[in-house]
Amino acid sequence: MRSQVKAFHSEHPEVWDLFVRFTKEILRRGFKHYSVNAIFERIRWEVDTVGRNDQYEFKLNNNYRAFYARRFMRMYPQHDGFFRTRRQTSQEDYPTQMSPLTPRDYQ
């Protein structure tokens, strides 16, 4: 998933720009913690309602939320902990390299 996020970020740097902009707006309002989910939904709203249709061409995967939250807190260490994140188990374990389960795998 990390490689997918990196590829998406490289192809769509405007998402990061919006993420930082909206997060900083919330910080200026005095929030000590906030929801990365709300930031992602705001990005979607902005793109769908404000942005021109030809300006943005991407789907924002919910699986990327934690990566964006962690990146923000790395880039702005003074706001470490602003987004609450869980321990990232993939940092400790290697992926299984097994194919995803399908309905045929269940009886």
Structure write-up:
The protein is mainly alpha-helical. It is built from four helices and no strands. The longest helix is centred in the N-terminal third of the chain and has 16 residues, at 13-28. It is globular, with a radius of gyration of 16 Å. The two termini are 28 Å apart.
Write the element-wise H/E pattern from the N-terminal end onward: HHHH
- Overall structural class, as computed from helix and strand content, comes to mainly alpha
Strand content: under 5%
Largest sheet data: none
Distance between the termini: 28 Å
| Helix segment tally | 4
- Which radius of gyration do the C-alpha atoms yield? 16 Å
Mean pLDDT: 85
What ranges have pLDDT less than 50 throughout 5 or more consecutive residues? none
Total strand count, please?
0
Summarize the amount of helix as a percent range.
40-55%
Shape: globular
Topology:
Elements: H1 2-11, H2 13-28, H3 36-50, H4 65-75
Helix pairs in contact: 1-2, 2-3
Describe this structure in a few short sentences.
The chain has four helices and no strands.
List keywords for this structure.
single chain; about 110 residues; mainly alpha; 4 helices
